[in-house]
Amino acid sequence: MKKVIAILSMLAMTAALVSCGGKPGNDPTDNAENQEAPLVGSVFGETENNEPAAPASAGQLDFSTTDIDGNPFTVDDLKDAKVVMINFWEPWCGPCVGEIGDLAKLYEEYKAQGFLIVGAYSTDGMDDDVRSVIEKNGVAYPIVRTGGNMSEFMTPYVPTTVFADGTGKILSAAPEIGAHSYDEWKTIIENYLSQV
User: For residue range 96-138, what is the model confidence (pLDDT) as tens digits?
Assistant: First the structure.
């Protein structure tokens, strides 16, 4: 029985480390691991097992929002990129924050090849926390507030990542859910870059 409990505990911890579900409430004891409310719906839909499914047809980003400093940011700002990685994250999500340093390095490594990362967050009142995370990790890619139809490409979990081209056309057959290692992201990014 102790082995079963230990295994179940390890599985629960692994799931919590990979992604955060829902949005924190006002209770300061809330954490990402015990949230159930979904952030938003997704054009990717869900399968019978509540797992994200591929969209019925290719999606198209169409948004007008602002960056963390209040500057306008629209889909037109993607036009110089061949591949755009849109990483939906929140500053209260441990796995999201945990991969930001690797994403910053990958952006620097691949930006000369036409690769762009756009980090998008939606939690109100957390701008200072977002700034702290991006400054600590040396993030040079745009950090924006989720706006326009961006939320249609999210899932109930963060981090969620989708890939698009410079026109905003979604390239992802399905979203990438959860945090990935540097090497995992590198393989995924190189795969998209090789297709353009």
Answer: 999 999 999 999 999 999 999 999 999 999 999 999 999 999 9
Sheet holding 83-88, edge to edge: 143-145, 115-121, 83-88, 160-164, 176-177
* 136-165 pLDDT, tens digit each: 999 999 999 998 899 889 899 999 999 999
- Within 10 angstroms of residue 70's Cβ, the number of other Cβ atoms is 9
Say what the pTM is: 0.76
CATH code 3.60.20.10 for 52-194:
no
User: What CA–CA distances, in Å, run from 187 to 6, 32, 117, 155, 190?
Assistant: 33, 28, 15, 22, 5
Q: The tokens of 123 are what?
A: 């939690």
The number of angstroms, rounded, from the C-alpha of 152 to the middle of its chain's C-alpha atoms is 13
As a whole number, mean pLDDT of residues 32-42 equals 36
DSSP 88: E
- Closest Cα to residue 77, out of 116, 105, 131? 116
Q: Is 83 helix (H, G, I), strand (E, B) or coil?
A: strand
| R_g (Cα) of the chain, nearest Å | 17
Residues 92, 109: Cα–Cα separation, whole Å: 27
- 187: which residues sit within 8 A by CB, 6+ positions away? none
CA distance 112 to 105: 13
